[in-house]
């Protein structure tokens, strides 16, 4: 799979954009601007959290994922359902029904990401035993949060645990198991994640912390929901064995990962703005007694993902009930050792900062531009109203220095300029022949 330098699942439909500026105020990395009545997403800043999808009243922000038909590219197809999928269906009391429904949609094999989460839990427990790791250890499971740290909190990169996400670990487990069981070649098998969010699609195309993803595509829950619902309603029996433990299923909800670890000193936070506030405190060394931090970009956890169908609170309650009935058990030491030898479960590349604030390659020029930004910012009203098309007065000052905007984009600056021009016109009109002052002089 050929990777693009900047691939983003979150995209803009310019024809639907009304330039309302709702998105620019909610973007956690200030990646959106509104210019000439249309929004623009700055690729280098975007972390694909989907917050703009959530707040856009005109549905101008969308997440590009793979259609269900894309599985036909492969001779054999494996579905990796996120545990969030289980909470989308009313009156389903057995996870096996959903797993069997996926097979009826054209998949040859189904492997629960919730089971992969059980393995991730066991690997992270090992990491927690290492006294030399920077504390608090930060979960690597939410790709939007990992990218947020790259962009806004690069000093915390070393705190991110080097254990891969449940999606990636599950993909390897599923492919290996299927190929061994049926004697097929790995390249004949397509592995597809059923995703509740756009960030997972991006992490497949442009992985962070690994050279290449083990997943071949991501199909949104919204894409698959209708057809899967119809299959579930027709099922008379279920021939798929549910494997994940109650803890693995519980990963769909905020706090599920930390609860599975069985530790006391943890903090689970959901919602991108809430996560930012906690990361700021971690960066300022205000949470030194914290052992583990689980940050999830979506409200409520993955159940609140922008590509889900059901109300997040309803889905969360269903997940809780279904997790109580999950038949799997936690991973044993022997299983963990055996699996650890077969798959690549650690991040194999160093996570690097993304210097989106870089103003110039020349440090002297960069310093001059920083000083200019400061001067322009001090001349602006400081209201951060967003009317200029930039999220704040600080970002407008930066945009001006970068050449993307002008001071007249600020409505207050424009009003002052118009007022000044009006006064100048009045003074000019009084000086020309026939003007009031000219008549007074003649009299």
TrEMBL record:
Signal peptide: none
Keywords, comma-separated and alphabetical: 4Fe-4S, Iron, Iron-sulfur, Metal-binding
4Fe-4S ferredoxin-type domain residues: 8-37, 38-66
Pfam hit, one: Fe_hyd_lg_C
Ranges where the 4Fe-4S domain occurs: 368-427
Database matches in InterPro entries: 4Fe-4S_dom, 4Fe4S_Fe-S-bd, 4Fe4S_Fe_S_CS, 4Fe4S_Ferredoxin_RnfB, Fe_hydrogenase, Fe_hydrogenase_lsu_C
The keyword Iron appears for this protein: yes
SUPFAM superfamilies, per database record: 4Fe-4S ferredoxins (SSF54862), Fe-only hydrogenase (SSF53920)
Keyword Amino-acid biosynthesis: no
GO MF annotation: an example: metal ion binding
PANTHER family assigned to the protein according to its UniProt record, in alphabetical order: ION-TRANSLOCATING OXIDOREDUCTASE COMPLEX SUBUNIT B (PTHR43560:SF1)
Protein name: Iron only hydrogenase large subunit, C-terminal domain
């Amino acid at each position: 799979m050929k990777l693009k330098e900047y691939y983003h699942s979150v995209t803009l439909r310019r024809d639907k954009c009304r330039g309302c500026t709702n998105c620019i105020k909610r973007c956690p990395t200030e990646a959106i601007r509104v210019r000439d009545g249309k929004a623009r997403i700055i690729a280098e800043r975007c972390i694909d959290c989907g917050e703009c999808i959530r707040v856009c009243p005109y549905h101008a922000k969308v997440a590009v994922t793979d259609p269900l038909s894309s599985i036909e590219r492969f001779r054999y197809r494996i579905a990796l359902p996120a545990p969030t999928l289980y909470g989308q269906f009313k009156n389903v009391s057995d996870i096996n029904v959903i797993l069997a429904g996926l097979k009826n949609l054209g998949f040859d094999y189904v492997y629960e990401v919730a089971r992969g989460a059980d393995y991730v839990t066991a690997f992270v427990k090992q990491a927690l035993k290492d006294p030399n790791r920077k504390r608090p250890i930060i979960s690597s499971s939410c790709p939007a949060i990992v990218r947020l740290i790259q962009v806004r909190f690069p000093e915390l990169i070393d705190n991110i645990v080097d254990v891969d996400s449940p999606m990636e670990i599950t993909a390897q487990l599923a492919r290996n198991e299927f190929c061994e069981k049926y004697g097929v070649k790995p390249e004949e098998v397509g592995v597809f994640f059923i995703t509740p969010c756009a960030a997972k699609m991006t992490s497949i195309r442009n992985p962070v912390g690994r050279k290449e993803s083990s997943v071949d595509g991501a199909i949104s829950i919204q894409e698959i929901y209708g057809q899967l619902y119809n299959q579930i309603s027709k099922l008379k029996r279920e021939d798929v064995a549910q494997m994940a433990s109650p803890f693995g299923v519980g990963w769909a909800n905020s706090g599920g990962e930390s609860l599975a670890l069985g530790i006391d000193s943890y903090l689970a936070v959901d919602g991108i703005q809430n996560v930012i506030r906690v990361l700021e405190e971690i960066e300022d060394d205000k949470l030194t007694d914290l052992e583990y931090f689980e940050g999830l970009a979506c409200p409520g956890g993955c159940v609140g993902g922008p590509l889900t169908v059901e109300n997040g609170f309803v889905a969360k309650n269903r997940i809780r009930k279904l997790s109580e009935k999950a038949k799997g058990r936690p991973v044993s030491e022997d299983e963990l050792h055996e699996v650890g030898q077969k798959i690549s479960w650690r991040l194999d590349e160093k996570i690097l900062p993304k210097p989106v604030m870089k103003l110039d390659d020349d440090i002297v020029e960069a310093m001059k531009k920083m000083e200019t930004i400061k001067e322009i910012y001090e001349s602006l009203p400081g209201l951060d109203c967003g009317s200029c098309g930039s999220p704040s007065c600080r970002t407008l000052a930066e945009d001006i220095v970068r050449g993307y905007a002008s001071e007249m984009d600020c409505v207050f600056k424009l009003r002052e300029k118009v007022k000044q021009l009006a006064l100048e016109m009045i003074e000019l009109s009084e000086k020309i022949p026939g003007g009031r002052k000219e008549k007074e002089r003649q009299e």
